[in-house]
Input
Amino acid sequence: MPANLEHIQQIMAEADILFTSEEVEAAIDRVALQINQQLFASNPVVFCVMNGGLIFSGKLLTKLTFPLEQSYLHASRYRNETSGGELFWKAKPEVSFMDREVLIIDDILDEGHTLSAIMDFCKRSGATKVHSAVLMDKKHDRKASPNLKADFVGLYCEDRYIFGYGMDYKGYWRNAAGIYAVKGL
Output
């Protein structure tokens, strides 16, 4: 059932901006520089995690200055809800990454169950090394495992419900030009 449009508009009207578009773009530039330095000679397969990673991936890929193959995968725990459940594969990778390095690009590292499952899948399926890049990393102590970290992180944020730049609120506001937090969440 589609969300109430009035409610969705109210969420944006009351939201707190955490990072402006300029701050996010500068973070993407920093991540691209780090990836260029580390993966320039690795001939990686780069997977965008749909739907959240779409905007970050699109902006990041144009800043990478080395040959790579790009594709997507779609796994989710949220299904347009505000809390996650069991991992659900909508589209597994279709590009072979056997004996190749892999870079997974996603929107956010929250608890990390989805990202961990995707990375484990790639390792079990023959990737020589799996790297991860996230636009946002939430600061809290609920990670799927205590040592779970992304290899490349754009920004760190407080433990709130955030949206914008690919991250959504009930399927909406992925297109917001900035990163916002829902008031009270």
Q: What stands out?
A: The domain at 5-181 is CATH 3.40.50.2020 (Rossmann fold). The first helix runs from residue 5 to 14. The longest strand covers residues 129-138. Helices lie at 5-14, 21-39, 54-61, 113-124.
